Amino acid sequence: MVTSSEFPVSSAGWSRRMVLAGTGAAFLAGCGRGGGAGRGALRVGITGKGENDARLLFSAAGIVPDFPITYAEFESGHLVVEALNSGALDFGGMSEIPPVFAAASTVQSFRQIGVLHGDVNNQAVLVPKGSTITGLAGLKGKRVGYVRATTTQYFLIQMLKSVGLGWGDIEPVAMSVADGAAAFEHGALDAWAIYGFPIQRAIATQGARVLRTALGFLSGNYVISVHRDVFGDPARADLVGRYLKLTRQAYGWAQANEKEWARVVAGAIGVPVAYVEAQFRAKSAPYALRRVSDEAIASQQAVADVFAAAGLIGRRVDMRPLWDTRFNSALPEA
Hints:
Layout: E1 2-3, H1 14-23, H2 25-30, E2 42-47, H3 54-61, E3 69-74, H4 77-85, E4 91-95, H5 97-103, E5 110-117, E6 123-127, E7 143-146, H6 151-162, E8 171-174, H7 177-185, E9 191-195, H8 197-206, E10 209-213, E11 221-227, H9 234-256, H10 258-269, H11 273-281, E12 288-290, H12 294-309
Parallel strand pairs: 2-3, 7-8, 7-9
Antiparallel strand pairs: 1-3, 4-11, 5-11, 5-12, 6-9, 6-10
C-alpha cells in the first residue's frame, strides 16, 4: 500500500504492478473496513497511469495533502466499482459505463458525487503496424480486443453502429488492459479498443496506428464516486471535500503548465515526451471537475440505454438514484 508521499514515478515493473492491480486482490485483502494499515486515511482508487494518476499530478504540482491518504491501483473502472461495493474504497473515479453494469446488478454501495470532464481523444481503436484496415467498416469479421464494462465496449458499439455494423459483425475479445497489450503486441488482435497511455506506448514501441479516436462517441464525462457510508461519517466526508479541492488545484496547475506536465507524464510511462505532447495537443477538452447536473445524469442514462438496447445488461436501468448532490458546493458548475 502506498501513501500520498510514496509512489513509483518510473515505468519499471509496470507490467507486474498492472497485473496485480487488475486483480485487486492484494488491496481488497488488506484495506477493507476492518483493515489496520489504512484506517483513518481516505482510501482512494487510481485508474491507469500517467495523467490519470493523482499521485503523480499532486507531486508535479507541488501539492502535499495534509491528511492521510492510501492509494490502490486498478486498470479499469469496473474494478473500482467492485472495490467500492465491497467497502474497500472511500473514493474512486471511472467512466460513465461501469456504474451502468452495477445499476443492473443487486449491489450499489456507492454514489456518484461529481464529474471529471476531459479528453476523449486518449481513447481509441488501434490497428497494428502494416494493417490494411483503413476505416471502421474494415473491422467487420475482425478480432477486436476491448475491456469489458468500460468506455471501450461502449465506444466500440457506437463506432460499429455509425457504419451500419453490429456487435455480432466483429469477433469481440474481452481482455484486461495487460492481456490486451500483450495480445496486440504479439499479433493476436486485428484491432484494439483501448484508453490512456497504452495508446502512446503502442505507437511509440510497435508502430501502431490510431484508426479512430472516441471523439464524437463519448461525452467526456468521468464519474467521481464515493462509498455511501461517507455521507454518515462527517470526518470522512470532510476528507472527501478537501481531496476534491486539492484535485481541482492540481488540474488547474496541469492546464497552466502543460509542457512540464507532459515531461513528467512521459517519464512516468516510459515514452518519448513528443508522444505525450502530441496527445496533449490533440485533447478534445482540458480536465476539469464539475458538479452533479441534470445534463450529467442524462448523459449517463443515454449510455445505459445503449447497453440495454444491445442486450448487454439484460434490462433498462434508471441511473438517477446513483447520483447525489451533497458535494456540489465543493465543485464548480459546468
